[in-house]
Write a structure and sequence with these properties.
Strand content: 15-25%
Mean pLDDT: 90
Order of helices and strands: HEHEHEHEEHEHEHEHH
CATH architecture of the largest domain: 3-Layer(aba) Sandwich
CATH class of the largest domain: Alpha Beta
Oligomer: single chain
CATH topology of the largest domain: Rossmann fold
Bound molecules: S-adenosylmethionine
Structural class: alpha/beta
Number of strands: 8
Strand order of the largest sheet: 3-2-1-4
Length: about 220
């Protein structure tokens, strides 16, 4: 970011930069330190902002950096007086860039990490915007849990890719998994869902169907 901004030759003392979804302040702190700009970082995650403030102090730029706990989607409606606005690594949070469709990838995460990464690359190669919670693509809102934010976000995408592997995943209070809720949310919103099912899971399902009580009765 510094190398992008430096050639613009902006006046260090007079330049104010807005860092939307600043996270732990990597952009704000580096720019304040390297270029002398004043920065305002907005993020919905309090823990990240605490780290950002700490980093600003360590780098001796606390007097140049301000961090605020806010939903950037609300903040941008009123924001003014900035010379530079940074919106880095936030996916389609403010809508589709040039109307590029967003594709939500829904599944358990840790066990399917490699597959999810491959799907991410494929979606991007096809020119669409992948939306994956572990990449910070989901717009977290202060008054919602991370899971609830995913349920809302899947509804804002144009398509969902659901991967059904061997793990059901962490459950919400109603006993249904986060992935299950994401699927239901997509279904409610009439978002098309492409479902990929692990071959073993399909086999388990056939065995389950064949051994279900009514199947036994049928055989008798
Ligand atoms: C992938 S991180 C990017 C951090 C930073 N921009 C960077 O490039 O290093 C995405 C950040 O956006 C924040 N975020 C997501 N939705 C937000 C919202 N609605 N309002 C404010 N911050 C949000 C997350 O908390 C997270 O810190």
């Amino acid at each position: 970011m510094v190398e992008l901004l430096r050639p613009l030759g902006l006046d260090p003392a007079g330049t104010k930069l807005l860092d939307l979804g600043c996270g732990k302040g990597a952009v704000s702190v580096t720019v304040a330190h390297a270029l002398g700009f004043r920065t305002v970082g907005i993020d919905a995650c309090e823990v990240f902002l605490e780290e950002a403030k700490q980093k600003a102090a360590e780098w001796g730029v606390s007097h140049k950096c301000r961090f605020e706990l806010k939903d950037l989607r609300e903040y941008v409606k009123e924001a003014s007086g900035f010379d530079v606005v940074v919106f880095a690594s936030l996916g389609g949070l403010l809508g589709d860039y040039h109307m590029i469709p967003s594709i939500f990838v829904s599944s358990t995460i840790i066990d399917l990490h490699h597959l999810r990464e491959t799907i991410r690359d494929t979606v991007a190669d096809l020119g669409y915007t992948p939306v994956m919670s572990e990449h910070g693509d989901v717009g977290y809102l202060p008054d919602m849990t991370a899971a609830e934010s995913c349920f809302v976000t899947v509804n804002e995408c144009r398509l969902a890719v659901l991967i059904v592997g061997k793990r059901y995943g962490s459950k919400e209070s109603d006993g249904r998994s986060v992935t299950h809720h994401e699927f239901l949310s997509a279904k409610d919103g009439k978002i098309p869902v492409i479902t990929l099912v692990d071959r073993d899971v399909l086999t388990f399902e056939q065995v389950y169907d064949a051994s279900a009580p009514d199947a036994c009765q049928r055989q008798v």
